[in-house]
Write a structure and sequence with these properties.
Layout lengths: L13 E3 L5 E3 L3 H21 L4 H21 L14 H15 L9 E2 L4 H26 L4 H25 L4 E2 L7
Antiparallel strand pairs: 1-2, 3-4
Helix pairs in contact: 1-2, 1-4, 3-5, 4-5
Length: 185
């Protein structure tokens, strides 16, 4: 018998966590892992539009870690379940990549606006979705058990995506769009 993608169990506005617990689809836990899934999709879009093999490989690793985060958030926190875990080395990899990019980038003297090229803008969209995912997970952690490393990883990932947007602009030879405050008349 073939596996069916639809189960009809969510038709009344609830969904199940791994472990069986049912929650309303508007629950912050569902919003948290749903936003991580959205972020993963944007990372895939960014990855698909780049040629650099090192960056593409790094983004594939990021997608794998985001799937790990999603599975962690989608698991019943009240049950002892074996779920994939994040490691400090995952955060260190992002930091290493940021340090590598920083050596090539011009010194940041202005605030940067999204834009200049669609690939740069897509990376900024991913960064913004990452920040939203982080805010959701931080809010979830107020009342429920969330591994602190998840919050750290999302925080570092948003920094990485900002640096990557700058690196993409550099590699494409497009000028970064800098914020210019309005001059008072």
């Amino acid at each position: 018998m073939a596996f069916k993608i639809y189960t009809k169990t969510g038709d009344k506005g609830e969904t199940s966590l791994f472990g069986g617990k049912r929650l309303p689809k508007y629950h912050l836990r569902i919003e948290s892992y749903g936003t991580v899934d959205e972020l993963n999709s944007y990372i895939g879009l960014v990855r698909d539009n780049l040629q650099d093999k090192v960056i593409r490989s790094t983004l594939k690793d990021v997608q794998d870690r985001l799937f790990t985060i999603g599975s962690n958030l989608a698991s019943d926190p009240d049950k002892q379940m074996k779920v994939p875990d994040l490691k400090q080395s995952d955060i260190e990899m992002l930091e290493k990549e940021m340090d590598r990019m920083e050596k090539e980038l011009p010194v940041l003297k202005n605030f940067i606006l999204p834009g200049g090229h669609p690939a740069v803008s897509e990376c900024h969209i991913a960064r913004c979705v990452c920040r939203r995912a982080e805010r959701n997970v931080v809010a979830l952690a107020v009342d429920e058990k969330v591994e602190p490393i998840i919050i750290t990883y999302l925080n570092r990932l948003s920094d990485y995506l900002f640096m990557l947007s700058r690196k993409i602009a550099l590699d494409l030879g497009v000028q970064e769009v800098t914020w210019q405050p309005r001059k008072e008349a």
